[in-house]
Give the backbone structure.
Amino acid sequence: MVEATGERVNIALVIAIVAVATIGGLLFGYDSGAVNGTQEGLKSAFNLTENGLGLTVGSLLVGCFVGAFLAGKLADTMGRRKVMMLAAILFLVGAIIQGFSHLQIIFIVARFMGGMAVGAASVLSPAYISEVAPANIRGRMTTIQQIMIITGLTAAFVVNYYLAGAAGSSTAMWWGGYEAWRWMYWMQAIPAAVFLVALTFIPESPRFLVQKGRLDEARIVLTRLFGPAAAQVKIGEIAASFDKDHKPRLSDIKDPARGGIRPIVWAGLLLAVFQQLVGINVIFYYGATLWQLAGFTEDQSLQINIVSGLVSIAACFVTVGLVDKIGRKPLLLIGSAGMAVTLFALVYCFHNGTLDAAGKLQLSAGLGTTALIAANLYVVFFNVSWGPIMWVMLGEMFPNQIRGSALAVCGFAQWFANFVITWTFPVMAAGLGLTITYGFYATFAAISFFLVLRFIQETNGKELEEMRG
């Protein structure tokens, strides 16, 4: 036990809960990284056009926005932990089927299943952490979600690199007579199985238990976390934050006084959508393809992905040290400004590249180095700010009464925007070129700075029961 803001905190239990809950983030990151090295295999196996590749890769994201929407509501009826367990099962089964698929439709269905799991875990993990962590360390604990996302991403880059190297290429046959790219999907089953087993060892969210009237169970969990005296006080505070007239429902996101969507929900939607409009998942999903378009070999592109992943992890640790000290909003503003500058630097590099006889973009040594530095700085700025902070704020910014419903709506919007960006990148890159495509992302990064300045309110240090909508 340690003291925090006048109360005892079982920090070991908090860390254990965070470690388990954020495996859901690792699954999201691992899938993002795994698909990054499988595009050539998918094209070959299913005879895909660029549009077909975008749709096939993006089918996970269709599942994500469906899963995120359903999870927010299911979490208010089944509980946070049970929904995350269901997500782990879906991801496990989906990963296995993706590796075996020889028909595009089967692959897409399996990828949709995995997407529902990722979407559910992505909104519930940070929300669950926010509901058990004390306010003074809540930002740091929730930021671990982004560290796990990038750790999963980087682990997949490393595994893909060695699988492709062992087989000769991602499309070459490897162990068991299966192509290496299929093994890249099967490896996802390992963290999914670990997630499922680990979830059986952590308690349900005490705020869900209070909402359901299971006060004795909530008291046990809160006592383990904060001690008996604080537990009784917190039960009263949590109970008072729920509407006595009805259980949480989707219509709670409407403003009871003025009608329409509550301003706090609009703020959440802003964070959810603009996190994707800056184009970060183009790097995550299509990094290998992007760098090959810029003139690098497949082997060099996979190595660049690994470096980007390691840089991202380091950036997230900076956020852990700053998020509960300087707050959420300053980090968002720093990130928006940094991403805009580095994205426009990439636009400059791509604009000044040349085309070879086959029409493939070629960068000079100087431009190639500048592009690599700018891309990695862009990743740093994202992972210091919008990457983790969006999840931190979605998990904590909403009042208890509307948290499940608001997460359903914002999670849906976040993953839908992710899907649109992922689906359209191959077509935009091929049809409009990298200059215009990255100019699009850079413009939205610049716009995000002013939107944060105007509409986002600081949540640092506030208890969840203090949140107002």
Observations:
- DSSP finds 20 helices and four strands in the chain.
- The radius of gyration is 22 Å.
- The longest strand covers residues 2-4.
- The beta strands are 2-4, 7-9, 354-355, 361-362.
